[in-house]
Amino acid sequence: MKVHVLQHAPFEGLAGIESWLAARQADVSCTRLFENAALPSLDGLSLIVAMGGPMSVNDEAALPWLCAEKRFIRAAVAGGTPVLGVCLGAQLIASALGARVNPNTQKEIGWFPLEAVWPEGEAFRFPKKFPAFHWHGETFDLPPGAIHLARSAACANQAFQVGRRTLALQFHVEVTRDAVRAFVDNCGGELKPAPYIQSAEEIAGAPDSLYDEINGLMGRVLNYLTEA
To answer: 41, 42, 105, 228: least buried by Cβ within 10 Å?
Structure first.
């Protein structure tokens, strides 16, 4: 299995996805977009994972590498390479496929539940109710032909699927305790009182069982994307 990671911030890595990849002895490469690193060829890739980051997909004037990255994602989706987008990565998939990404009515930061949308036909099915970690102020419209998969009280569009091989998750089910601590350490200035923003103490208070639950769900998502 040959996996390529699109990383947008030094503090936001694969977290719990690393253990899934290690168990499969995956050959993992990475483009660190924040270093203006070059994108690879799509040839031979088994999976692309586009991670999150503090920037907006609309920051193309300041961050011109966003344009090349969107072209790369669009080509991967069109060519049938499995693509997983997490948070910013999900918004990049949406933008690459022609959907609008814009500020949500509420910032959503912390541990908040989601509700699955169970479509008819072939699609990934999340549990009807499930927890996840959130850190986003923007959201996406659904791209043409996308299947809506999840929503939360603060944000209507939380996940979608395109075809059989592309999943976009605006929330985080890959995080570990260390990954969440890195979010707070690097972006804690956003933790200002609001209906869907938890305090640093509330965020840190999540039990180990919650991490186990969400990481298990992340494994199910990855299994689905990479199954023959």
So the answer is: 228
Is 174 an annotated catalytic residue? yes
Provide the whole-model pTM: 0.97
Angle at 33 between CA 72 and CA 5, to 5 degrees: 65
Catalytic residue among 4, 8, 136, 172: 172
- Summarised one tens digit per residue, pLDDT across range 94-132 is 999 999 999 999 999 999 999 999 988 889 999 999 999
pLDDT digits (tens, 9 = 90+) for 131-145: 999 999 999 999 999
Task: Evaluate whether 47 touches 23 at the Cβ level (below 8 Å).
Answer: no
Buried b (16+ CB within 10 A) or exposed e, 17-32: beebbeeeebebebbe
- Token readout for 44 is 């031979």
Catalytic residue of the set 8, 12, 87, 136: 87
Q: Is 172 an annotated catalytic residue?
A: yes
- The number of distinct structural domains making up the chain is 1
CATH number at residue 138: 3.40.50.880
Contacts of 170 (CB under 8 A, 6+ apart): 87, 90, 91, 134, 136, 139, 140, 155, 157, 158, 159
- Amino acid code (one letter) for 41: S
Range of the domain at 199: 2-226
